[in-house]
């Protein structure tokens, strides 16, 4: 939140203004909120974005928190449920009103929760859904703005920016540092490494993980189940031509090699010199049906298209690249490489450090895939308990319970 001035203009202190806004929010008093928005215009901070000093709650948090289902009620269970539903309905109106008046969807409180995280934790489904919708709108708007900016910028600039730059604020230059959690931004912070830095950094490979120089998890063995299911989803019959982008620990490539539906040919694109050395040491360059392409997919894939290579299945899982890179991959490259009845998939880890980001990204990706001419089906994969997996890893990048495995095809 931008710091508001210390005194109001009507004799009331700013703290009193904030208290009034928070009270109106928790009571779902839209009339009073309307008045607050009109009257308390802080030059640097909108009334809808104030934060309560002891909890860091925004008006959105307050509106949601007061919908919390009562634990000790006197009525029957049914009556309690009914009460909760009524409160939630008035919460929905208030949250909608705040969002329409510019409230920031992903402002975090002192508990590191966005309003959506709070709604999720409290099991308030309709409020959670409203916050997901708000996140999707903000992310889509931002990604469109970025496209316009890109058009204005020098066309050949391929500088990497981590896993995306999206933020819910409409204008990137107006971003406030304390509101830094958005889906794509969370990823950027999670990795905190650009593609060019990553590709020239030393790597450490152990039996259960591949780390970069800053101990970011590039790949971890717990993802093995996801890789197996992804290979199963793609290899529907023997004798297919498959392309995998990003070798990492070679988990999915081993699943492909050992699959009951053995592929006729198996191409792998890998850009990191240390990973390529490991591949060489482990004999991947000499396997009968394997072709390894050393270099970035951005350079290799256009060559494969020019050579007329076509695949029945493609898997995409790179590291330290932006969402814009990924979008370039599926909007520009897949069309030239995938057989018209082929299938492709990708590692769906965007926003996976909190449920709301994961859900927002799923919708954003779905829309972008649709725009590029793909249908996507999602399969749920239950994950094991990951609590003990993160020792020695800089940041826990996975914080959602189940994995949604995408299978994409050209639209009919
Ligand atoms: C997350 S790992 C892949 C893990 C793999 N799916 C597995 O099952 O072990 C990502 C890999 O992509 C590679 N990579 C990153 N950027 C790349 C790029 N632009 N082109 C090709 N490979 C890239 C990384 O070096 C790394 O080996």
Automatic annotation (TrEMBL):
Q: Which GO terms describe its cellular component?
A: cytoplasm; nucleus
Residues in domain RMT2? Answer: 189-412
Arranged from A to Z, the UniProt key words for this protein are: Cytoplasm, Methyltransferase, Nucleus, S-adenosyl-L-methionine, Transferase
The UniProt GO MF terms for this protein read:
protein arginine N5-methyltransferase activity
What Enzyme Commission number(s) appear in the record? 2.1.1.-
UniProt region (Disordered), positions on chain = 152-178
Q: Which PROSITE patterns match?
A: SAM_RMT2
> What superkingdom does the record give?
Eukaryota
Q: Which cellular compartments is it found in?
A: Cytoplasm; Nucleus
Coiled coil regions, renumbered to chain: none
GO biological-process terms attached to the record: methylation
What family does the Swiss-Prot or TrEMBL record give for this protein? Belongs to the class I-like SAM-binding methyltransferase superfamily. RMT2 methyltransferase family.
| Task of the protein | S-adenosyl-L-methionine-dependent protein-arginine N-methyltransferase that methylates the delta-nitrogen atom of arginine residues to form N5-methylarginine (type IV) in target proteins. Monomethylates ribosomal protein L12.
Q: How does it assemble?
A: Monomer.
Record protein name field: Arginine N-methyltransferase 2
Specify the taxonomic lineage. Answer: Eukaryota, Fungi, Dikarya, Ascomycota, Pezizomycotina
